[in-house]
Amino acid sequence: MVDAAITLIEKHGLLPHPEGGFYRETFRSDIQVETAVGPRSAGTAILYLLNGDDVSRLHKIDADEIWHFHEGAALAIHSLLPDGTACIDVLSPDNPQIVVAAGVWFGAELVERNSYCLVGCTVSPGFEFSGFELADPNMLLQTWPNARNVIARLT
């Protein structure tokens, strides 16, 4: 593990995330909004860290998510789009904010393996684990066969 990552995990009290990496929720709005699945917080935010060979496994959530670069190396965010295509956005000091739309399968990995990246993720309406789903690689391959390598690495 990269020394700077260990320091950040300890400093911010980050815990292992089910999708991979480390996180801590830092904000949950007291404002409630009505959604198709009932009331929930208007917005949430987390700190999220990937280190070394960690990946954010392919998953989807039922809300829009904005990724904000804080420090470290660049992060490749892979998205599997509803039209059957796949794309990569690189989160970095030169491109410090990326939006992933609700319902899109996505995951992330470090561009440089012997590094780390600390990001912030803001979700609106607020994140709930009930709206979080990890991907089944066989199901994804049916729609995105051209993304076989990404699906293999991130599931």
Automatic annotation (TrEMBL):
Record's signal peptide: none
Residue ranges of domain DUF985 in the record: 8-135
PANTHER family: DUF985 DOMAIN-CONTAINING PROTEIN, RMLC-LIKE JELLY ROLL FOLD PROTEIN
Protein name per UniProt: DUF985 domain-containing protein
Biological source species: Algimonas arctica
